[in-house]
Amino acid sequence: MAGAFYKQDMPPKGGYGPIDYKRMMPKRGPSGYVLFAGCIGVMAIGHVAFAYTNRQRKNRLYEQREAFFGIMPLLEAEWDRDTLKQLKHTQEQEAIIMKDVPDWVVGESVYHTKRWVRPRVEDLYFLANSKERREAMFGFNTFV
After folding, report:
1. Residue 47 to residues 39, 52, 55, 124, Cα–Cα distance (Å)
2. Which residue from 57, 71, 122, 132 could staple onto 128, CB 3.0 to 4.6 Å apart?
3. pLDDT category, 141, cuts 50, 70, 90?
């Protein structure tokens, strides 16, 4: 050990440079201003698309309503035809049932008026079987 020669490490002439001790993160993504402008742009596009879709929906509903108004007289005529057909059938059944009752007028209105009064569903189907009456009064139902 006596023969070993040690040389101490020394700084270079002029010394070492400054030590970087501050945190240096790489810049990531757009700035806050760019993000804010992007959000405003996306919302503006969304509002324009929303207005365009509302306009299309309004036009479609207008067209459906006009089509319904156009076909409504035909539907009313069909409903009236079905009503008169059922009323005739009911009056025929009433005539058969009440033939032995004196002073019974078949089809006499319960309303004291000369005007046409649309008969209630119960009046049209009171002689029908229960399934047909239930379908006429409540629509198509399936009872489980």
Report:
1. 12, 9, 12, 53
2. 132
3. low
d(CA 93, CA 87): 10
Q: How far apart are CA 91 and CA 99, in angstroms?
A: 12
Q: What is the pTM of this model?
A: 0.52
Q: Where do the H-state alpha helices sit in 5-129?
A: 32-97, 121-124
Cα(18)–Cα(16) distance, integer angstroms: 7
The full DSSP string for 122-144 is HHHSTTS-HHHHHHHHH-S----
Structure confidence by residue, pLDDT tens digits, 48-102: 999 999 999 999 999 999 999 999 999 999 988 988 898 898 889 889 988 999 8
